[in-house]
Amino acid sequence: MNMPIIYGFAFATLSIFSMQTYAAQWNLDGSKSNVGFTTQGTGGTKANFNKVQGNAVFDPKNIKDTKINLEINASSLSAGIKTPLYKGSNGLNVSKYPKLTFKSTAITALSGNRYKMDGLLTMHGVTKPTTWTLNINPEGDALTMTASTQIDRTKWGMTHFENLIDETITLNAKTKFVKVQ
Q1: Domain interval for residue 130
Q2: Long-range CB contacts (< 8 A, 24+ apart) of 89-97?
Q3: What's the CATH number where 37 sits?
Q4: Is 172 a residue whose pLDDT tops 80?
Q5: Helix, strand, coil percent values for the chain (each to nearest 5)
Q6: Which residues are in coiled coils (predicted)?
Q7: Considering the domain boundaries, does residue 128 fall inside one?
Q8: Is 74 contained in some domain?
């Protein structure tokens, strides 16, 4: 038997396996995740969405291939006594726009576990690019991500309550993803 051929085949096989990606699929654990926003001004508030779904592809060795997708049930908004105001036709208009979505388009390493995340946010029927500060903390078969950004709500067509709420809204997400087995 020709040993160089066998060694060559073994080396080629090991090379193929060592080139496999370390990317893993992750599903959002909605019960351990919090997505919300804060507004400033006379009518300012802190609000949370109670129903969030999502998934991610995370490769710690190749962060640029990381993808994050979120879908938020707009009707699950909770803002205390201001909930009807924010859900109504002058706010998110949840009867017409029942969901908000976010899809990452690029993730760039900054330092340590800090990243810059670009993506498309669809809210109130309008899709616009956003840039977030993102922290990723892998913990075995769980992945905790925290992210925040500020947006101008008027760019998404939410122009009411200009005397009560500042145009700038801070969006926050603290999410926990579980590795798909």
Answers
A1: 22-179
A2: 90/160, 90/161, 91/158, 91/160, 91/161, 92/123, 92/124, 92/158, 93/124, 96/125, 97/123, 97/124, 97/125
A3: 2.40.128.110
A4: yes
A5: 20, 50, 30
A6: none
A7: yes
A8: yes
Report how far residue 86's alpha carbon sits from residue 84's, in angstroms, rounded to the nearest whole number.
Answer: 6
- Which tokens hold the place of 56? 């991610």
- The pLDDT tens digits for 72-113 are 999 999 999 999 988 998 889 999 999 999 999 999 999 999
Q: Which two tokens stand for residue 150?
A: 């500020």
Count: domains in the chain: 1
The 10s digit of each residue's pLDDT in 140-155 is 899 999 999 999 999 9
Residue 149 and residue 168 in contact, taking contact as beta carbons nearer than 8 Å: no
Q: Judge whether 15 lies within some domain.
A: no
pTM exceeding 0.90: no
Closest by CA to 139, choosing from 181, 180, 107, 178, is 178
For residue 29, what are the contacts with CB-CB under 8 A and spacing of at least 6?
142, 176, 177, 178
